[in-house]
Amino acid sequence: MKPTTMLASNDRAVVRFEKMVSVRDIDAFVQDHARELSSRGVTRVDVVVANQHVSTLSIGMGSENGTQFFTIATVARHPIANEHVDHPNVAAASAPKEGQSRPTLGGLSAFADFFGLDLRRRLKAMAGDYDAEIARLHKEGRSFAARWNKWLAWYCAGWYVLRSPLDKAAAMLVKGFTGK
Amino acid sequence: MISPMEALILGLLVQKARGAFGSELVHMSDGKLKRGSVYSLLSRLEKAGLVKAIEEPPTDVLALPRTLYKITGDGARARAEFAAFVGLPLLDGGAA
To answer: Between chains, do B39 and A125 touch, taking CB under 8 Å as contact?
Structure first.
């Protein structure tokens, strides 16, 4: 399976797989793209599978008997509980719930981009705070609370969008009366 | 002149030298601040130059960046002026 998104910035790249894949598939992809990644200056690759950060790999270049080759080493593996990811180090008992990915607010952050700078900054600040809370709840294994907080964040965003014109009108009235 | 709620936010930020996130302010205010209004208030204070917003980079690849708010010198002065004007202790209970 090919990853749907691949972002590279400075020395890090993120390889995202939408659905569960085996570690062999991940390794094969990184092997196949090691040269391209390395040429872009990438030394670390974060592997994200179904919205879970599963591992961080380092890419280096070595040579032996005049032949250059790429070395790929695992820097860190992050807990993920899903039987489809079949590497012994990847499956960990400490993961929150089997097969459950963490709810994220990436959609809300993208939704915020439709609005003006002021409202966008408010929405992004709120999304960041809710996201941190969702991550904490998910880590604690409170998946229902995490999902509930995701809906609360969207509800709150809706409220900010609706009240934005009212805020502007109130500010104009205050300015009209006080001249400030 | 700032509003009582804005003075409350500035009072809470005075207690947090390293700055505070919006959700922390809601938690610290014991229900006086709501999630549905705190970011509007902070935005207004930021526009007035009374608080400074600093974007914190995400801690992992899935996380979103968070905004940390810090009080500025003008913010501390505005809070003191508000306390002197109303002649009452501020909503956070602290002295100006």
So the answer is: yes
